[in-house]
UniProtKB/TrEMBL annotation:
Keyword Membrane appears in the UniProt entry: yes
Highest taxon listed in the record's lineage: Bacteria
Bilayer-crossing regions: 29-51, 281-305, 335-355, 378-404
Alphabetical keyword list: Cell membrane, Lipoprotein, Membrane, Transmembrane, Transmembrane helix
InterPro entries hit by this protein: ABC3_permease_C (IPR003838), Lipoprotein-release_system (IPR051447), MacB_PCD (IPR025857)
Start and end residues of each ABC3 transporter permease C-terminal domain: 283-407
Protein name: Lipoprotein-releasing system transmembrane protein LolE
UniProt organism field: Salinivirga cyanobacteriivorans
Amino acid sequence: MSFARYIAKRYNHTSKKGEQLWSKPMMRIAVFGIILGMIVMITAVAIITGFKKQIREKVTGFSAHIQLVNRDLNRSYEYTPVDNNWDYLDEIQHYEGVNSIHPFITKPGVIKKDDEIEAIVLKGVDSTYSWSFFNKYLISGEAPKLDSTKKSNGILLSAYIANRLKLKVGDRINMFFMQKPIRLRRFTLAGIYQTNLKTFDELYAVVDLRHLQKLNNWEPNQYSGFEIMVNDFDQVRQIERKISSRVALEFNSKNESLQTISTLDMSPQIYDWLQLQNMNVWVILILITLVAGINMITGLLINILEKTNQIGLFKAMGATDKQIIKIFMINAAKIIGKGMIWGNIIGITLCYLQQEFGLVSLDPDSYYLSEVPINFNWTYFILLNAGAFIVNLAMMILPSLIIARIRPVQAIKFN
């Protein structure tokens, strides 16, 4: 065992006579600061990443990660129809990172009940559509049951629309479509969902797309486009570029081609807002790390001052500055590690309790969520701990350099 490790192992914060030294309470404050700092940093990262994850899931649940639509200037909900006879559709399905691809149709309409009316957008899907997103947010009834043989009259509405029109599961709904002539379709309310993403809850209802094909006088193989879901949100832009380069130069007999639109371009205001949250996290992490580091620096400076006699004695016995600095750095690492361990235990426990029991609620109108979200991303936690430990320990180097300026003769006389 080296000299530095041997001394550091027997290091304490009491004098020979058992008197309490100033460094001991300062070190306790430093440990408390690190514990509190780790709790704040862990919960901040868990909450912000959880918030971003849930909002992303809600946005892409309505519009998918990528849409493949006709290459024209139409930006309304009445798309120019596209056929499903493109050779590359099966090829895209097997691209790395692509989870699924399914057709969709959107069409605006008006629901009328008594004297109340509500304008919405119908989203038509077929039997290949996954209801996992809407099933997660169902509060009543069930998703419409779609199969390839029989057209379903079921409709899935948001709680916002259902409450405004005083509708409940099983009610018949009259929906009018503003075209020449005005068309009427009757649906049965199959289920009610609530995502708390008000922008979309106020807008979308989901039905069997064959109703919309008939209203538009489209063929059975014509759709508004195709929705593509990917496995990793961080790969959306990369996969979109790959698909775009594949479809850009291919035209059909009508001289039409398709284009890709990612969710990042469909809802830029939401993603820009989410991007701002990253800055908040960095500000919190930097401030908390600096506060914890300053506490440690203060404690270490007081410790060096109190141990000046010992430092002078070690130097007189032949110990080098490097060895003595190592003694203090080892003890600083122990203190930082102790604080981080307790901070992790408390922080992760608080996050778990929030995830399981939803102890802290939110205003859905302001935050799009009914309770504080938590995301256990262990990679982030590991990187956070490693970064915090390295930065705090690095901050200890500067006050430790004071040891090099202490001279044995003066230090031994120091009182």
